[in-house]
């Protein structure tokens, strides 16, 4: 039996406490829910909610219209951190928001963290949403 794409992403996944990960999660049907400023602000605040922060330390993030990118240090299980984040956003918006599963990439070399954060934060520029990253309000990085 063939597994759905979201389940396939979980095959063989394991996380290391203290490990650095770059996560991408996509909205259901790639609906551009975060074009609505209140929804985008809620998605930003949710990275720091207590229920999320006890599972992950947020280094950087960007909230795009139909997905998020999140650079984090996991404090337990990566899947649990992402599940808590997704639940926080869905609960706050009062509706299911997310496609099943997520994509993650472990960052093993600390020297790769800053370039990963720069790449992540530049997403609105590459998508043509703004010409200057300072004009895009839905991102953050600890290196500011």
Walk me through the topology.
Elements: H1 5-10, E1 20-26, H2 37-46, H3 50-53, E2 56-63, E3 67-74, H4 78-93, E4 103-107, H5 113-121, H6 123-126, E5 139-141
Antiparallel strand pairs: 1-3, 1-4, 2-3, 2-5
Helix pairs in contact: 2-4
Structure description:
Helix content is 34%, strand content 22%. The protein has 144 residues and is of the alpha+beta class. It has a five-stranded antiparallel β-sheet with strand order 4-1-3-2-5, with helices on both faces. β2 and β3 form a beta hairpin. α2 packs antiparallel against α4. It is globular and about 35 Å long. The termini are far apart. Mean pLDDT is 91; it is low at 1-12.
Biggest beta sheet attributes: 5 strands, antiparallel
Q: Strand sequence of the main sheet, in spatial order?
A: 4-1-3-2-5
Strand count: 5
Helix/strand-derived category reads: alpha+beta
Helix content: 25-40%
Strand content: 15-25%
User: What's the average pLDDT?
Assistant: 91
Per the principal axes of the C-alpha atoms, what is the gross shape? globular
Order of helices and strands: HEHHEEHEHHE
Cα-based radius of gyration, to the nearest Å: 15 Å
Task: Tell me the number of helical segments per DSSP (H or I, 4 or more residues long).
Answer: 6
Segments where pLDDT lies below 50 for 5+ residues? Answer: 1-12
The separation of the N and C termini measures 48 Å
